[in-house]
Every structure is written in C-alpha cells, then in structure tokens.
Design a protein that fits this description.
Length: 1010
C-alpha cells in the first residue's frame, strides 16, 4: 500500500486541492485511490499536531490548544480513526494532505508521525509544492493583510529546511513548482492527479475550483490602513467587517477598470528571486528549478534583505491615484446604500460630471414568449403617407437562399459587446435593454416614440440609433448558443424606426443620421433581416424597408465621400455598414458590385491617408485609438477578404510597424499614456491585439518589451516618429526599470487628438510621473473643449493661461547613446512664439530648455507640470517623491540679446501675428456647472470614460526673452547641467567627476539645433 503525503506548502492551492479530492473521493476510490475523510473535514490537518510542538498554527490552536502532551494524544486518536478507515478498504494508494506539514521541524517532533506512517504503509511519497520566493512572499502578504495591518519583513521560504525535516521518514520526495505555466493544465488539482493517477487527468467529474482572484496593491493598502486604524490590536484575526470591505473594494476595482494584479517592486523581486545556495541545493538534490530564477548567475548565501517594508507601497508597484479613486467610489457606494436604507434616492457624481443614471432603477416586465409560428407573416401598420409608399416587393426566387448564405460573413461590429448571455438574459427576464454598458438599463416598454431620450446624454442616442442592441431578439447568441427568439419584438422595433424615417425624412443634423449610428445600424438591420425577418414580413413592408436602406446607402456614401472623417476610424464603420447593406438589400448584381467596390476603395484610401506605413503611427493622435484601430482595421481586412473584395493598402508590414510603435510608447506592457482621447495610464482590451500575438508581429523589439528585457533587442535610446509627432526616449534598462519619456510634435491635430504640441510625459520604473491627463469622450461637455483638448491639460507651453490652437515645427534632432534631444517651435498668435528643446540623459535626467518670446512684455509664459496622483510634491514643487524614489527639479535662465530675440520671433514658419483660435473660457462659460471657476489652475485626470478626478498641477512662471533650463533629476544624482550662451549659441553642458561635456548646441540666429 502506497501513500502520497501532500504537505502543501502555504499559498499553493492546498485548500482547493483538498476540496477537489473530497468531491472526487468516490471516483478516486473506484480507481484504487483512497482519500479518507475524518471528522467531516476535507483535510488531515491533525496529522501536523506533533510537528508543530508548542506553536501550532491558528487553526490547530483554536481547535486543540498548545499543550504538547494533549495534542500528541489528540494526534494518536485521530490517526487511529484514519488507520481504521484505511485498513477496512485496503486500497492500493492512499492520499493524505495538510499544508501545516509543509514546515521546518526538529527530528524529535516528526518522529511520532513518521513512526505511524511507516508502520501503516509499504512505501511513501511526499508531494510538496513551492512558489518562487518572490511569488510566495507576495501571496503570503496578501493573505496576511486580510487579518492584520502588519506586514512581515520579506524573507525567503526555507524550502531546503522543510525538505530536510523529512529525511528521517525515508520517503520519495516529489518537488513541484506552483506556477500556472508549470502546472498540468495550469491547475494544481490536475497537476497533483498527474502524479498520483496520470490516467485520471481531466476525467474526474467534479471540476477544480481553484480560486484566481487576488487583491491589488491599491486594495491591499486600503485594507492595511483600515486594519491599523480600526483593529490595531486584533492582528492575525479575521473578521466579517474586513471581509465585507474587501469584497466591496474588489468589486469596485473590477467594475471601474481600476484593478491591477499586484506586483512586487522589481528590486525586491531581484532580492527574493536572486540565486542562492539553497536554490542550488534544490537543483542538485531534486533536479528542481524555479522558472523565475536565473541559474546562470552567481549564487549567494541566504541573508537578510535590507530595507523598510512596513507599508504596501514599500513592497509593491503602487498607484496612489487609483487607491484614492477606489476609496472615493467606496465612500460613494456606502453613501448610496445608506441613503437607500432611508428611502432617499441618491446619486453620486464624480468631479466635473453629472450622472444621467436615474434613481431608483426600474425593474421592467418579463416579456411574454414570442409565440411566432413558422411561416407566420407579421402585419405592419400602414405608412403615415400611403401615397409615398413604394410598390410592394416580394422576394424573388432564390433571394432568401442567397442572403442566408451571406449571413455568416456580415460584419456586425462589436457583436460580442451587444449579444452576450448577460444582456440576452436581461431582456428575457425583465424586458430591459442595455443600450451600452456605461448607461442604465432601458425598459423596452418605454419605446413609444423613436425620439425617446431617457438619459439626456447625446451618446446614449448614438448607441440607441445604432440598433446593435436588437441582437438580443435573435434565436442564438454571439457564441452560437440557441435561445428563445423574439422576432415579433424585433419587427415591432424595426417598424417603429421605419415609420419614423418615413415621417421625418433625411435630416442630416438629426441624431438618427449620426455616422457611427448609421454605419452600425446598416449592418445590424441587414443581419436581422437575413437571420429571421425577411421571411416574416409582407411585400409591402419589405418595399418600405428597402427604401429606407437605400437612404442608408446614399447617406453612407456621402459620409465616405466627405473630408470630415478622412483620418478617423469612423471610415471603417461607414464602409462596413455600406457593404453589409449592399450584400443584403441590393438585388441588382451590377449595382451591388459597384457599391462594394466603392466601399473597398474608400477603406484603401483611408489606410493610405490615416496610417503612416513607414512609422506605424496613425493620424488619430490618440494612443487608445491607435490600438483600437489596429484591432478594428485587422478585422476590416478579414471582412473584405471574406466577401471577395480584399483590401490593397493593408499589409503585415504595416501591422508589424503599428505593433512596434504601440509597444514603444507603452512604458510597460498593457499600460498606455493618456495622450489624446485616452484614459490615464489606460489598460486596453487585449482583443485588439489578439491577431498580433505571434508570428511576424512579435519582432525582437516587441519581444524585448514583453519579456522585460529577457529576450529580443531593445528599442533605441530615441525612437523618432516625426510624421505623426512622437519622440520616445528609453533608457537601456528593461521596461519596468527605465526612464521613459515622450515628447509630442503636432503639425496638425488628429480626430481624437489634442492641442498638445511640445508637451511631454515621463514614466519612471514603469509608473507615471509627469502625465498627460487624457480626456473624457463626452460630447457637448465644455471641459472637453476648454480644458482637455487644450494646453491646460498638458505639460505644454502656454502664455497668459490662454490656450490656443497650437501647431509645432521641427527645429532639429540630436541623437546619441546616452543623450538625445529634440527641438520644436510654435507660433501662438498675437506676436507670441515659443521654442522648446526636450532631452533625456540616461535613466537619470530630463532637461527642458524653454525660450518664450513676444512682441509684448506684458505676456506671461508658464511652465506647467501635471503630476500623477501617486507623486508627492513640496510646497515650491522642486522636490518630489514618486513610487520609485526622489525627484528634484531645478531651473536657471540666461539672457538673450535683442537681435537674438528678434531672430527667434521671425525665424519660425508663418507670420508672428497670424491669428490663432483661443480656447480661453468666457465669464459665461465659467458659470457652466461643468466648468468650475478655477478649472484652469487645476489638474483633472480621466480614469474612466466621461469621469475625471482631481490631480496635481505645478506651475512655474518663467521669464520672457530668456532661455530657461529646467533640469529634472530622477533619483540621487551627482551630475550637474548648465546652459551657456556665447556667440549666438546656446550650449547644454553636463558636469560630473570634475569633467564637463557639451551635450547640444542651438543656433539662435538660424533657430536650429546643431
């Protein structure tokens, strides 16, 4: 009889494994594997009573106490019960498990257990799982904070001592790594079964319930603060209050896109996962290696890790702004719940945003079954003006078969968003429709008129008019799962729309004909018609619907012929909707071909205009819309290929460059700077890059970024994308340890871009420091046009706090291995001009040289810095503290001569007095509730669509007609930088170790970087 003794260790899924074994105990027994159950438990923790001595863990302490003699007696009593069960069955194999056995103990403490085991079993295998030291410490810290406000000092798990404690047992030791990638099927339960009974892998009926959810660093920090403030004397004690708060915070984080898996700081990971002598012993003795450890490094003795590690932000990568946002939303949730208890409807709105969600929410009425019989025809209401009704049109023979064959190829943009089991069930259970996730549910019973507008938000109307939400009425969901259809309901909605269009006609400014809505609607009506309505409508309504769809054709072709969307991804929606409409509703083959060829040509022209093939950048001037366009454009290519009209201007080479640019501009993978219409430090839906995850798209540079420098090749110190205006500086370290800066050049403003020329953003050790605030997508919001799209929301030059349309021109680039710089200039109207030189030195310094000049001495130039909320600043702003360390800012200026100033005023392109549109708020606009009086002296940050939170803004007045050097040092630095002015030249000089080095020269007479 053979025993598999599973001993954990901690944080390796032991409880999930025990639950799995209990649920499958009968099936295991049928296959000769006995999992004895005693005392109604799914584990055998009492086996650990002897080895724990006088210091049992919390569970055993509460159950048995800490009297060694009494606990030894309790152990023998428990073992007697287990032995009786085993001998009665007499199986080939037995499994016993307790994570409390995964510990170091003295030989005399283990002897009682070993004696009983050796007496009962013929042979024994001990199965033990270890996490890498860094992974174990982080997981243990997460668990500790659920019951305590105190973090333990980081130490390495004593794997060697645990294994050596079992030497007297004489067992076969099976050592395995607990890491998803190393486990069989990524699951500890399946992995354990592969050891005990390989033939049963994947065949046991009760599935594994291994939990994957963990806290984020920000939630950990809130819980630590809470435990220390409210339960300071109750360490190592779980309580319901903490558990409830934890559940609430995690729910808030996930629902608001604020959840980030916790990560230790890179330097702490390096300490914990650094190769040591014990790791080498594990490898030599058991052939066991941690996959996260570099075994080619020099091994060191295990020693204490120096430093202070009392707070979450001292051990983890941490975003203070996210923490504050979660706390604010938690308070809002509490306030709303408290108000609801008092029967007082409450709405909590973020800064600068009024929610449109009504309170309290309606519940709706469950719709009656459709009841439609096969072959039944729906009867429509007569048109408002029968005289204008088209002649009835019956389907010609074979037409339904033709369109049915086309149905699988229809584009149906974002169907995976609208046609989910959740939304389908919502309608079938309540009669409620969710037009879009960001809005409240809508009771379909309220659709008595197509002008319905329950939220007052124009974006709701765009999504409503798209009619994509009608996918819930069909007979199967996006995944192909059958569901009860509601074709009559689909017909009623479609008829209401047709009647409204017949009555209103085509009014371009009516939101029905929004280009986004029209493109989506053409696709979804074509699909609903093909899927189930074509054979259920009368010839009269068929003719009326086709007339409306021909109006869609005319409208979409007009959109595609206009210049309005020449750089916008909306071109794709328009072309796809036109193509879907043509495939289904144009029965004349020649007309259908001409329309499809027109749609394909317009997409090809858009690609040629909107994507810089050589650089892989896009004209939208928004980082979110870059990745969005990558995914959507790839899908568009596949769609036109599937309908027999392949695109000519899209290629793998283009997508390769787009993917390289995306990884270059992300400071760390899956985190985007908030440039243009993007959220701050935004994650994106990985579906947009799913098509680029292998093959030629994973270039050496992309692999370097994704692997944190472990493979591939790094990006250059300065990557230049001048066509669309990005200059990206990267120090040579792996991404999570770099100083990463972006300097923006804007020769024009893209559809989702801002007036952010000469602005810069900096990330240090993967975390944002000097930020671009992103921007809300809400249309008609004054903050969008008076703040987020202007210099006020950016680290851009500005005179008199008067934001203007700002385009920049290139004045030169200086490249090098340790230092690079870019010079830009801009006219700003009314005789005002600005030259800015931005440079980065290694991973330690950013330098900015500003030269503002004006025809009037009354103008006041301002240097603005928007700080990430996690960055703390001193009163004067010169000393800052970021998650990665100290940051110091210094400024100095040098005089320019009158002739040099004159040369600068006249040396830039364009006339110095040319008009520039001002976005300065009027007094009346400042009275708007969304535009607070002092908005232009504050910082606002977009973390969520249409919502913003208060940020931090530093402003420094700098002199006119002088060159001002701003030096920003990241970390403790000894080098100094100075600006010299001689013979019409500005020189940036670095001094260190008694030597000086000229890094760049700028010619004032020629206004050019030398």
């Amino acid at each position: 009889m053979h025993l598999y003794l599973h001993i954990g260790t901690g944080r390796t899924g032991t409880q999930s494994l025990q639950d799995f074994l209990k649920k499958n105990s009968e099936q295991l027994a049928m296959n000769g594997v006995f999992y004895p159950l005693a005392e109604g438990k799914n584990h055998h923790n009492a086996l650990a009573l002897p080895v724990c001595g006088a210091k049992p863990p919390r569970y055993l302490m509460h159950r048995y106490g800490n009297d060694v003699e009494k606990n030894l007696q309790a152990f023998h009593t428990y073992f007697d019960e287990i032995e009786e069960k085993i001998r009665k069955v007499d199986p080939e194999t037995v499994i016993l498990t307790s994570e409390f056995l995964g510990r170091e103990f003295k030989p005399e403490l283990g002897q009682p257990l070993f004696d009983r085991l050796n007496a009962l079993f013929d042979s024994i295998s001990v199965v033990v799982y270890f996490r890498s030291p860094a992974s174990y410490y982080l997981s243990a810290a997460l668990q500790t904070l659920k019951a305590s406000g105190i973090l333990k000092h980081p130490t390495k798990q004593v794997a060697r001592k645990i294994l050596q404690s079992y030497d007297p047992l004489g067992a076969d030791m099976i050592v395995r790594e607990y890491k998803r990638e190393a486990l069989v099927n990524g699951d500890v339960c399946e992995d354990f079964i592969s050891v005990v009974a390989p033939d049963l892998v994947g065949k046991l009926p009760a599935p594994s319930r291994e939990q994957n959810q963990t806290l984020s660093a920000e939630v950990m920090s809130i819980i630590q603060d809470y435990r220390n403030a409210i339960w300071p004397n109750d360490n190592n004690q779980f309580n319901e209050e903490t558990n409830s708060l934890l559940d609430l915070l995690l729910e808030i984080a996930h629902e608001n896109d604020l959840y980030r898996p916790p990560q230790l700081k890179p330097e702490l990971i390096a300490e914990l996962d650094g190769l040591d002598n014990d790791m080498l012993w594990l490898k030599e003795t058991y052939g066991f290696e941690y996959s996260d450890v570099d075994y080619t490094a020099d091994a060191k003795p295990v020693s204490r890790i120096e430093g202070t590690f009392d707070r979450v932000h001292e051990i983890c990568l941490f975003h203070r702004g996210v923490k504050e946002r979660i706390m604010l939303l938690g308070l809002a949730s509490y306030t709303a719940a408290n108000a609801a208890d008092k029967s007082t409807p409450t709405q909590v709105a973020p800064v600068g945003e009024t929610r449109t969600r009504p309170a309290p929410a309606r519940t709706g009425t469950k719709p009656a079954p459709d009841g439609t019989r096969p072959g039944e025809t729906f009867t429509e209401q007569p048109p408002a003006d029968p005289a204008k009704a088209p002649q009835p049109k019956s389907m010609w023979p074979g037409e339904i078969a033709r369109i049915k064959e086309l149905e699988p190829r229809l584009r149906l943009p974002e169907r995976e968003v609208y046609d989910t089991p959740k939304l389908n069930n919502l309608f079938r259970e309540t009669g409620m429709i969710q037009i879009r996730q960001t809005f409240p549910e809508f009771d379909l019973a309220d659709l008595t008129d197509w002008t319905v507008h329950p939220t007052g938000n124009p974006v709701w109307r765009i999504y409503f008019n798209s009619m994509a939400w009608m996918s819930v009425f069909t007979d199967q969901d996006f995944a192909g799962k059958p569901q009860e259809p509601h074709w009559k309901k689909a017909f009623d909605v479609l008829e209401a729309f047709v009647r409204h269009v017949e009555a209103e006609g085509h009014r371009p400014k009516n939101d029905i004909w929004d280009d986004h809505a029209t493109g989506y609607r053409a696709s979804y009506i074509a699909w609903l018609y093909t899927r189930g309505l074509a054979e259920r409508i009368t010839p009269e309504f068929n003719a009326r619907l086709r007339k409306v769809m021909i109006l869609h054709r005319k409208t979409l072709m007009g959109f595609l012929d206009s210049e309005k969307w020449k750089f916008s991804n909306h071109t794709l929606f328009q072309a796809e909707g036109l193509a879907d409409m043509a495939l289904i509703f144009l029965t004349d083959a020649d007309r259908r071909h001409r329309t499809l060829e027109f749609a394909r040509t317009k997409v090809d022209e858009f690609i040629e205009r909107a994507v810089s093939h050589a650089e892989g950048t896009v004209k939208e001037h928004s980082i979110f819309y870059h990745v969005f366009l990558m995914g959507r454009l790839r899908e568009t290519c596949e769609y036109f290929e599937s309908i027999g009209y392949p695109l000519n201007n899209a290629s793998d080479d283009m997508f390769i460059r787009m993917n390289e640019f995306l990884h270059d501009i992300m400071p760390v993978f899956h985190r985007m700077p908030g440039i243009g219409d993007s959220k701050h430090f935004q994650r994106f839906n990985k579906k947009y890059i799913a098509a680029f995850e292998d093959g030629p798209f994973q270039t050496p540079r992309v692999r370097y970024h994704r692997s944190e420098g472990k493979e591939g090749e790094p990006y250059p110190f300065l990557s230049q994308y001048p066509q669309d205006g990005y200059f990206i500086f990267r120090s040579p370290e792996p991404p999570a340890q770099q100083l990463h800066s972006i300097f923006l050049h804007r020769s024009f403003r893209g559809p989702h871009g801002h007036w952010d020329g000469m602005s810069f953003v900096c990330h240090w050790h993967g975390e944002p420091v000097f930020i671009d605030s992103g921007g809300p997508y809400k249309y008609s919001n004054p903050m969008r046009y008076k703040y987020f799209q202007t210099q006020l929301a950016h680290n851009a030059p500005i005179f008199d706090r008067d934001p203007v349309d700002l385009t920049t021109q290139m004045l030169g680039v200086k490249t090098g291995d340790d230092f690079s710089a870019v010079a830009l200039g801009a006219r700003m109207g009314d005789g005002r001009s600005w030259v800015r030189i931005f440079g980065q030195y290694g991973n330690s310094h950013v330098v900015v040289i500003d030269i503002p000049v004006s025809a009037s001495s009354d103008n006041k130039p301002e240097f603005r810095l928007h700080l990430d909320p996690a960055v703390e600043a001193s009163g004067d702003g010169h000393d800052m503290t970021a998650p990665a360390g100290k940051i110091t800012l210094q400024q100095s200026s040098v005089d320019l001569t009158a002739s040099e100033t004159q040369a600068l005023r006249h040396g830039l392109d364009g006339h110095e007095n040319a008009a520039h549109i001002s976005h300065k708020a009027t007094d009346d606009e400042r009275a708007h509730p969304d535009l607070e009086d002092d908005f232009d002296t504050r910082s606002f940050i977009t973390y969520k669509d249409n919502e913003m939170v208060e940020g931090k803004l530093l402003t420094f007045d700098i002199p006119l007609a002088r060159a001002t050097l701003t030096t920003i040092a990241f970390g403790p630095q000894t080098a100094g930088f100075s600006l010299l002015h001689e013979n019409g030249q500005l020189s940036l000089v670095r001094e260190a170790d008694g030597a000086s080095e000229t890094l760049l020269s700028f010619s004032l007479p020629t206004v050019a970087l030398g």
